[in-house]
Design goal:
The structure holds two protein chains of two kinds. Chain A is built from 16 helices and 13 strands. Chain A is α/β, with parallel strands linked by helices. In chain A, a hairpin with an 8-residue loop joins strand 1 and strand 2. The longest helix of chain A is centred in the middle third of the chain and has 30 residues. Chain A is flat. The relative contact order of chain A is 0.10. Chain B folds into four domains: about 300 residues, FAD/NAD(P)-binding domain, CATH 3.50.50.60; about 140 residues, Elongation Factor Tu (Ef-tu), domain 3 (Beta Barrel); about 100 residues, Orthogonal Bundle (Arc Repressor Mutant, subunit A); about 50 residues, Orthogonal Bundle (DNA polymerase, domain 1). In chain B, helix 2 packs parallel to helix 9 and helix 12 packs across helix 17. Classes of the chains: A alpha/beta, B alpha+beta. Chains A and B meet through helix 3, helix 4, helix 5, helix 6 and helix 15 of A and helix 18, helix 20 and helix 21 of B.
C-alpha cells in the first residue's frame, strides 16, 4: 500500500437525495468509522467485523446521534481501492452528509482529491489503465508533460481500426526511412501514388471518426442548438412548440428572455439541447448588452445555430437581419446554421413568397418558414436538425468516438496527415515529410499505444534486403 | 618498469581506443595506451571507408568536440561523397573512401604528437580491482600497471573465433591473436557477457579484375571534407569505386556451399547485424531477388588490393572463390584473402551509465564493440566519450553527457544503455527523433562550445565556429530585411516555373520557396554584392541557405525536442524500487529495476515498458 492516510468523500452525486453514500478508504478507515458508530443490536465493534458485511446502527458525534445508517465494511485487498474501505449509507439531506463528513475529517480523515479513490485503486493494481480512464484524465490535467506520456491504452472500438491504419502508415514510414538510411543501396522506393492512396484513406477514416465525436457527444449529452434572434421574434414560443410544454418564459415584451435557458428534446432517438438566448441586436441597454455577449458564448458552445426572426419584420429590417446572419457566420464559419422566418401566419401568400425568395439568395445557409404559434413547419425544423447530425454512424452500428482526448489525438493526427498530403503533392523530400509522418504516428500512438523508432527499423529489417 | 600511477589506461588501440587515449591525454590526464601490437593502431578491419549516412554526422560530431577521426579521415581520403544531397539537409551525409594504410599511419603519428600519452605493447589479461574500484591492469607477462581509471576497447578480440566454412580458429582479426582473460574476470566480478558475430568479405587483386564490365562510381565533383578546421584540405584528385552485380548463377554456386556454412549448420550461434548481412544470408532470406550489388572499393592510393563490399561471407574459401569468379568482371579474380565471420565477447551495454562507466566497477569504462556496437564511427565516438569521462572522473569534474536532441552520439549512448542491443548496433538517422536538428553542417554549432569547455576543442576551433555562426546569421538577416523588386525577381521565378510576384517583397520569402536555391538568389545583384563584400565562403552560404529554407522544419523539431526535455527533467530517485509498483507489468518492473533509468524520458525508452507503465510511474512520482 502506497498511501498512509485515510480519505473520505461523498460517493453519490452531490445535493439532496433519498440516500447518500459516504466512502472512507485507507488504513484507518475501519477504525475511524468504528469509533463513531454504534450498532443498534449489540455492543459489536466494526473493527471486529468480517469483510463484505453490512451493519445497521447510528453515527454518533460524542453523544449526539447524527443519523441512522447502514455501514458496509470491505477489508484490503478485497475492496474497490485495495485498501480498507468503509461505506456509510445515510439519509440524503445535504446537512446530514456534511455533518458526517465533517465528523470523519475531525477524526483524522482527509478530504479525497477528485478521482483519488480511483487513483488508489489504480496504484494498488485493482484497475488497469483503460479502466482507470478517469485517472489518466486527472494526470493529464495536472501536468502537460505527463500528459504526453501518460497515454492510456484504448479499449475496443475504433482503436483496432486506427491500429490497422497505423500499421499501414508505419509500413510506409519505414519505406521512407529506407530511402533515407539506405539511399546508396539497391532498394525499392516508396511508391508515392500508393502512399497518396493510403493518406487519402487515412484522412477519410479520421474524418469519419472525428465527425462521429459529434454523434458520440449527442449520445452522451445531447447536441447543443443555440436559438439566436432578435428579442420578441418568438424564440420562446418556438422552443415551447418544440418542447410541447410551457417552460421558457413567454411574453410580448422584447428582451424578456435575459437568462439563457436550456431544454432537452429527443428527436428520432437523438437528444438535442436547445439553448434559448437573448438576441444580438445593437443596444445601449446594459443588461441586454450582457445578454448579447452571453449569446455569442452560447453559440460558441453550440453545434448548430438557429437564427430566428419575425417574418413580418423582414420587409423593413431585411438588411440588418442579413448583416446579423453574416456576423454570426463570420464569427463561426464552420457551424451549421439554419435561418427561420417565424410568424409566417401573419403574412399574406405574396409576402411569404417574397420573403422566401430573398432568403434563398443567402448562400450556403438553409432557410425555413414556420409559425411556431400554429405549429406550422415545426416538423420540418425537426427534420432539418436531424439532418445536421451525421446519423450514418449510428444507423450503421459503426464505432463512435466519445473520449475527448481521443478526439484531440484524432484531430491532431488529421492535421499532420493533411501536411503529409501537402508534402506528397509538392514533392517534399522524404526526411521532411517524415517529420509529419512521425507526428501523425505519434498521435495514433496516443490512441493505440506507443511508437518508437525501433518499430521502423524492425519493419525495415524484416521486409527488405539491405546491407552492403 | 611502471612505477607511476596513470590517470587513464586505455586498453586497445582501434577507433575507440585511439580516440579515448587522445581525448584523455588532451584533457591533461597522464594516459597510457596499451595494445597487443603497436603496428596495428587504428586498423580499418572491415571496409576502407569512413562516414556514410548517420555515420558521417557522427564523424563531424567527433571533430566538432575535438576528436581526431575527422582530421585523419580527411588526410587519408581517396574519394569524397556527400550522400543524399538530393534530400533535406538533415540527410546530407559525408563519406570518404580511405587509404587503409595511410589512415592507420596518420592516426599513429597524431597520437605520437599528443602530449601526456605513453604507449606500451602487450596483451592485457586482467584488471586490478579493489573494493569495486578499478586500480589498473595486469599484462600477459604479469606486469601490473596502476591507474585511476581504465577504458576497455577490446573490439572483436575477446575470445575471438574466426570461421571460414567448416574451419574455425581463435583470433581477433585475420592474422592476429585473440585476447583472453578479461571476459572471465569480468564475469567473476558479476558482469553479464554475450557473444556477437560479424563478418567481412574477401580482398582481391585489382590487377585481376576487368573494370570495363563494371559501372564506375566516381567521387563528388566538388568534394567537401570532414574537419571543421582548415588544417585539412578537400581532395583535388580522387579514386573511383566500381559497381558489379551478382547473378542467379553466382547465387546457385553459393547455395552449393550452404551445407558447409557455419551460419546455417549451427556452428555460429550468435547474432550478426541484420543490416549488414552476409551474401549467403541475403540470397537465403531474399530468394526472389535475382541479383545483389557489389561495390568494388580500392584500399588506397597505390595498392592493388580491393575490398568487395556486399560480399561478406563465411562460406568455405573454395565456394567464395568459385562464386566470385562467375561475377561479371571477376572471371580471373585472384584472392588476397578470403572473407570470414568472427564471433567475439561483448558486454550488454545496459550495465553502463551514460558516461560509459560500468555500474559495477567504479573507474572502469567500456567503449566500442565490447558494448555491442558495430562501425568505426560508432566505436570512435564512444571512445571519445569514455576518454572524456575517464579524464573528468580523475579530475573530479562533472560528467559529460550528450542528450538525444544534441548529438547522434547522445542517441547512440542512450540507446545502448537504455535498450541494450542483441545484434551489433549501428547508427541510422531514423534512430534519432530529431534528426533535422542533428545535421552534419551544424555539428560545430552544437558541440564545439562544449568541446572547448572540456578543454578538448581548441580556441581556434571555437573562434572559427563563432565566426561562421555570426556571418550566417547576418546573411539570414539580410534576406529577412532586404526587399527585391518584381522586375528583378520575376525573370528568375519564371525560369524556375515559380509563381510570379505582384509587388516587391522580402527576399526571405522567395528564398524559402521549395524550388528556389542560392544559385537563383545569387542572380540578384544585391545578393551577389553582399557575398562579395563580406567575402563569404561556401560553408557560410550553405549554412545560410539551410537556415532560410528549412527554418519551419527546424523550428518544429526544436519544439518537439523541448517537450522531450520536459520529461528529461522529471528525475527518478536513485535505486528506485520498482517492485512495489503493483500495477506495473512484471516485465516493466524487472527491466526498470535492472536499467535504473535516470529520468522518466529514459524510462519510457526501455524496451518492454509500455505507456501504461510510465503513467503508473508518473502517478507514483506525484506528477
Amino acid at each position: 500500500m502506497i498511501y498512509n492516510d485515510t480519505i473520505v468523500a461523498l460517493a453519490t452525486a452531490s445535493g439532496a437525495g433519498a440516500v447518500a453514500i459516504i466512502r472512507l478508504s485507507g488504513k484507518d478507515a475501519i477504525k475511524i468509522a468504528a469509533d463513531n458508530f454504534k450498532s443498534v443490536k449489540s455492543q459489536k465493534s466494526l473493527s471486529d467485523q468480517k469483510t463484505h458485511t453490512i451493519h445497521l446502527g447510528h453515527i454518533i458525534d460524542e453523544n449526539r446521534v447524527i443519523d441512522q445508517v447502514l455501514v458496509s465494511v470491505f477489508k484490503n485487498p478485497n475492496s474497490y481501492t485495495g485498501e480498507d474501505v468503509v461505506e456509510v449509507s445515510c439519509h440524503g439531506s445535504v446537512y446530514i452528509q456534511q455533518e458526517i463528513i465533517q465528523l470523519f475529517l475531525r477524526k483524522g480523515c482527509r478530504m479525497a482529491n477528485p478521482g483519488e479513490f480511483t487513483l488508489r485503486a489504480f496504484l494498488n493494481g485493482k484497475l488497469d489503465l483503460s479502466q482507470a480512464e478517469a485517472v489518466a484524465d486527472l494526470i493529464a490535467s495536472d501536468n502537460e508533460a505527463s500528459h504526453q506520456i501518460a497515454m492510456q491504452q484504448m479499449r475496443g472500438g475504433f482503436s483496432s481500426e486506427i491500429a490497422k491504419l497505423r500499421e499501414e502508415l508505419l509500413n510506409f514510414a519505414s519505406l521512407i526511412e529506407l530511402e533515407l538510411d539506405f539511399a546508396e543501396e539497391d532498394v525499392e522506393f516508396a511508391d508515392r501514388t500508393q502512399f497518396k492512396d493510403l493518406v487519402d484513406r487515412i484522412s477519410f477514416v479520421l474524418k469519419r471518426l472525428i465527425d462521429s465525436f459529434a454523434v458520440g457527444n449527442v449520445i452522451k449529452n445531447g447536441i447543443p442548438v443555440a436559438i439566436v434572434g432578435e428579442p420578441n421574434v418568438g424564440k420562446s414560443t418556438l422552443l415551447n412548440a418544440l418542447l410541447n410544454e410551457e417552460r421558457a418564459i413567454v411574453s410580448d415584451i422584447a428582451g424578456t428572455t435575459r437568462d439563457t435557458i436550456e431544454d432537452e428534446l429527443v428527436i428520432n432517438g437523438i437528444g438535442f439541447r436547445f439553448i434559448d438566448t437573448a438576441g444580438i441586436r445593437d443596444t445601449k441597454d446594459v443588461v441586454e448588452n450582457i445578454g448579447i455577449k452571453k449569446t455569442f458564448e452560447k453559440i460558441e458552445q453550440a453545434q448548430v445555430v438557429v437564427f430566428l426572426f419575425s417574418a413580418n419584420e423582414f420587409k423593413t429590417q431585411s438588411e440588418r437581419l442579413i448583416v446579423e446572419v453574416e456576423k454570426i457566420k463570420n464569427k463561426f464559419p464552420l457551424k451549421p446554421m439554419l435561418i427561420i422566418a417565424n410568424k409566417v401566419d401573419q403574412l399574406s401568400e405574396e409576402e411569404k413568397e417574397e420573403v422566401s425568395q430573398s432568403l434563398n439568395t443567402i448562400q450556403h445557409i438553409e432557410a425555413l418558414m414556420i409559425s411556431a404559434q400554429n405549429n406550422e413547419g415545426v416538423e420540418d425544423l425537426k427534420d432539418k436538425l436531424i439532418g445536421f447530425v451525421n446519423t450514418g454512424a449510428l444507423n450503421n452500428n459503426e464505432t463512435i468516438v466519445t473520449n475527448t482526448r481521443h478526439y484531440d489525438a484524432l484531430l491532431k493526427a488529421f492535421e499532420e496527415i493533411q501536411k503529409v498530403k501537402y508534402g506528397l503533392e509538392t514533392g517534399l523530400s522524404g526526411d521532411l515529410m517524415a517529420i509529419d509522418i512521425r507526428q501523425a504516428l505519434y498521435h495514433f500512438g496516443e490512441i493505440t499505444g506507443e511508437i518508437t523508432s525501433d518499430d521502423l527499423l524492425g519493419n525495415i529489417f524484416a521486409n527488405f534486403c539491405i546491407g552492403k | 618498469m611502471f612505477n607511476e600511477v596513470y590517470d587513464v589506461i586505455v586498453v586497445g588501440a582501434g577507433h575507440a581506443g585511439s580516440e579515448a587515449a587522445a581525448a584523455a591525454a588532451n584533457m591533461g590526464s597522464k594516459t597510457l595506451l596499451v595494445t597487443m601490437n603497436l603496428q596495428n593502431i587504428a586498423q580499418m578491419s572491415c571496409n576502407p571507408a569512413m562516414g556514410g549516412i548517420a555515420k558521417g554526422q557522427i564523424v563531424r560530431e567527433i571533430d566538432a568536440l575535438g576528436g581526431y577521426s575527422g582530421i585523419v579521415s580527411d588526410t587519408s581520403a581517396i574519394q569524397f561523397k556527400m550522400l543524399n544531397k538530393s534530400k533535406g539537409p538533415a540527410m546530407w551525409s559525408p563519406r570518404v573512401q580511405s587509404d587503409r594504410m595511410r589512415f592507420a599511419e596518420d592516426w599513429r603519428l597524431m597520437l605520437e604528437n599528443t602530449p601526456n600519452l605513453d604507449f606500451y605493447q602487450e596483451m592485457v589479461r586482467g584488471l586490478l580491482v579493489n573494493n569495486g574500484k578499478v586500480e589498473g591492469v595486469v599484462t600477459s607477462l604479469g606486469i601490473q600497471i596502476k591507474a585511476k581509471s581504465v577504458v576497455l576497447t577490446n573490439g572483436t578480440f575477446l575470445n575471438g573465433l574466426i570461421h571460414i566454412g567448416d574451419k574455425n580458429f581463435g583470433g581477433g582479426r585475420a592474422g592476429e591473436k585473440a585476447a583472453t582473460g578479461i571476459t572471465e574476470q569480468l564475469v567473476d566480478l558479476g558482469f553479464e557477457s554475450g557473444r556477437m558475430k560479424t563478418g567481412t568479405p574477401p580482398r582481391v587483386d585489382g590487377r585481376s579484375l576487368d573494370f570495363s564490365k563494371m559501372v564506375e562510381q566516381p567521387g563528388d565533383e566538388n568534394p567537401d571534407k570532414f574537419s571543421y578546421l582548415d588544417i585539412t584540405k578537400p581532395l583535388t584528385q580522387q579514386r573511383s569505386c566500381h559497381l558489379a552485380y551478382t547473378s542467379e548463377k553466382v547465387h546457385d554456386l553459393l547455395r552449393d556451399g550452404f551445407d558447409r556454412s557455419p551460419m546455417f549448420n549451427g556452428r555460429i550461434k550468435s547474432l550478426g547485424p541484420r543490416y549488414c548481412p552476409s551474401i549467403e544470408d541475403k540470397i537465403n532470406r531474399f530468394a526472389d531477388k535475382d541479383r545483389h550489388q557489389l561495390f568494388v572499393e580500392p584500399e588506397g592510393w597505390n595498392t592493388v588490393e580491393y575490398y568487395i563490399n556486399g560480399f561478406s561471407t563465411s562460406l568455405p574459401e573454395d565456394v567464395q572463390f568459385k562464386a566470385l569468379r562467375s561475377v561479371e568482371g571477376f572471371e580471373n579474380v585472384k584472392f588476397f584473402r578470403p572473407g570470414y565471420a568472427i564471433e567475439y565477447d561483448y558486454f550488454p551495454p545496459t550495465q553502463l551509465k551514460h558516461t560509459l562507466e560500468t555500474k559495477l566497477v567504479s573507474g572502469l569504462f567500456f567503449a566500442g564493440q565490447i558494448n555491442g556496437t558495430t562501425g568505426y564511427e560508432e566505436a570512435a565516438s564512444q571512445g571519445l566519450m569514455a576518454g572524456i569521462n575517464a579524464a573528468l572522473k580523475v579530475q573530479e569534474r562533472d560528467e559529460f553527457i550528450l542528450k538525444r536532441d544534441e548529438a547522434y552520439i547522445g542517441v547512440l549512448i542512450d540507446d545502448l544503455i537504455t535498450k541494450g542491443t542483441k545484434e551489433p548496433y549501428r547508427m541510422f538517422t531514423s534512430r534519432a527523433e530529431y534528426r533535422t536538428l542533428l545535421r552534419q553542417d551544424n555539428a560545430d554549432l552544437r558541440l564545439t562550445p562544449k568541446g572547448y569547455e572540456l578543454g578538448l576543442a581548441s580556441e581556434k576551433r571555437l573562434k572559427r565556429m563563432e565566426e561562421k555562426h555570426e556571418q550566417a546569421e547576418k546573411f539570414v538577416e539580410f534576406f529577412q530585411n532586404t526587399s527585391v523588386t518584381t522586375g528583378e525577381i520575376n525573370p528568375i521565378l519564371e525560369s524556375k516555373n515559380s509563381s510570379l510576384m505582384k509587388q516587391q517583397d522580402k527576399m526571405f520569402k522567395i528564398f524559402a520557396r521549395p524550388n528556389i536555391d542560392i544559385e537563383d538568389m545569387k542572380k540578384i545583384e544585391s545578393v551577389s554584392n553582399y557575398i562579395e563584400e563580406h567575402n563569404l565562403d561556401n560553408e557560410i552560404i550553405e549554412q545560410t541557405e539551410i537556415q532560410v529554407k528549412y527554418s519551419g522544419y527546424i523550428a518544429k523539431e526544436k519544439n518537439n525536442a523541448d517537450k522531450l526535455t520536459r520529461l528529461e527533467n522529471i528525475r527518478i530517485p536513485d535505486n528506485f524500487d520498482y517492485s512495489k509498483l503493483k500495477s506495473m507489468s512484471m516485465e516493466a518492473r524487472e527491466k526498470l529495476n535492472k536499467i535504473q533509468p535516470v529520468t522518466i524520458s529514459q524510462a519510457s525508452r526501455v524496451s518492454g515498458v509500455s505507456p501504461a507503465d510510465i503513467s503508473v510511474l508518473l502517478v507514483y512520482l506525484g506528477r
